[in-house]
């Protein structure tokens, strides 16, 4: 099921008149099936790595992942009208990071370097470090640090990285603001409850969806295999040969119909 942020972004897209005059600035959601549906409606789109260019439509749609004020100004200065679907919980991360920087703290963002949400967070900061895992943490030459998370970080990973930051910077004044969004937290907790009951988990979602990958990572950290699929067609019956029970979960940008199709295909394999 979609999280509310994705649902609102899609709802706004579906209510947009004259989609041919709109370029989506990246992937509206990390779901290939939805992206095809948007293209069929007439939306143009810019691939995420190509966002440094300018769309050739008069309007541009900002995705749920958000953008920096710097990027917003660049687009508006070029005469583009913005349709903004930024999730309010991503805005909250921007505000938290900016407030920490305003306090004179060096900001450390727990997230994936290069992810569009992370780019939007750090681009407005005077300086920032982005760490995807405890191995990327270093001793920072700053007396005061401020730590925030990409909204779709798993609580387990955030805790692990925070502990590494504290261990590597024992003399620093460190403030951690937990900016993990509730839908991500809810899914992680649900999978945590599921894991003791199953031999492995099928995770349905886009391959470049961070929260989908974090669900798979949670399973693997618990010693259970996770099979990441984008559709029922990706399932391989051989995966389940030694399984008595298989769990099913999905990322926040997965269509209900895709989850149902995967569920039905799994039941057919079991039969
Ligand atoms: S995953 Fe969280 S931050 Fe991202 S769109 Fe959904 S609710 Fe918003």
List keywords for this structure.
271 residues; alpha/beta; Cobalt-precorrin-4 Transmethylase, domain 1; 3 domains; four-stranded parallel β-sheet; binds iron/sulfur cluster
Offer a quick outline of the entry.
This protein has 271 residues and is an alpha/beta fold.
List the helices and strands and how they pair.
Layout lengths: L3 H12 L6 E4 L6 H10 L2 E3 L12 E4 L6 H9 L3 E4 L3 H15 L3 E5 L5 H7 L5 E4 L12 E6 L5 H14 L4 E4 L5 H13 L5 E5 L5 H12 L4 E4 L16 E5 L5 H15 L1
Parallel strand pairs: 1-2, 1-3, 3-4, 5-6, 5-7, 7-8, 9-10, 9-11
Bound molecules: iron/sulfur cluster.
What do these coordinates show?
This protein is α/β, with parallel strands linked by helices. It folds into three domains: 4-87, Rossmann fold, CATH 3.40.50.11270; 89-180, Cobalt-precorrin-4 Transmethylase, domain 1; 183-270, 4-hydroxy-3-methylbut-2-enyl diphosphate reductase, catalytic domain (Cobalt-precorrin-4 Transmethylase, domain 1). It contains nine helices and eleven strands. It has helices at residues 4-15, 32-41, 69-77, 88-102, 116-122, 155-168, 182-194, 210-221, 256-270; strands at 22-25, 44-46, 59-62, 81-84, 106-110, 128-131, 144-149, 173-176, 200-204, 226-229, 246-250. The protein has a four-stranded parallel sheet with strand order 2-1-3-4, with helices on one face. Strands 6-5-7-8 form a four-stranded parallel sheet, with helices on both faces. It has a three-stranded parallel sheet with strand order 10-9-11, sandwiched between helices. The longest helix is centred in the middle third of the chain and has 15 residues, at 88-102. Iron/sulfur cluster binds next to helix 1, helix 4 and helix 7. The site of iron/sulfur cluster (SF4) has 15 residues, from helix 1, helix 4 and helix 7.
């Amino acid at each position: 099921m979609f999280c509310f942020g994705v649902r609102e972004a899609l709802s706004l897209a579906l209510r947009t008149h004259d989609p041919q005059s709109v370029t989506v600035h990246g992937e509206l959601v990390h779901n290939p099936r939805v992206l095809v549906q948007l293209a069929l409606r007439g939306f143009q789109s810019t691939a995420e790595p190509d966002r440094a260019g300018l769309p050739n439509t008069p309007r541009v749609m900002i995705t749920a992942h958000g953008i920096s004020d710097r990027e917003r100004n660049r687009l508006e200065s070029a005469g583009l009208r913005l349709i903004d679907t930024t999730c309010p919980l991503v805005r909250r991360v921007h505000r938290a990071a900016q407030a920490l920087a305003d306090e004179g703290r060096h900001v450390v963002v727990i997230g994936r370097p290069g992810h569009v949400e992370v780019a939007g967070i750090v681009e407005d900061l005077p300086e920032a470090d982005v760490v995807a895992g405890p191995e990327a943490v270093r001793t920072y030459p700053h007396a005061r640090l401020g730590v925030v998370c990409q909204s779709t970080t798993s609580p387990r990973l955030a805790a692990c990285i925070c502990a590494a930051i504290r261990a590597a910077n024992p003399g620093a004044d460190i403030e951690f603001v937990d900016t993990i969004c509730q839908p991500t937290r809810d899914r992680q907790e649900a999978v945590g409850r599921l894991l003791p009951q199953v031999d492995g988990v099928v995770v349905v979602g886009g391959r470049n969806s961070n929260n989908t990958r974090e669900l798979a990572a949670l399973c693997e950290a618990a010693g259970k295999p996770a099979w990441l699929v984008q559709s029922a067609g990706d399932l391989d019956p051989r995966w389940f040969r030694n399984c008595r029970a298989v769990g099913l979960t999905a990322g926040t940008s997965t269509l209900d119909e895709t989850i149902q199709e995967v569920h039905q295909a799994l039941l057919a394999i079991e039969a």
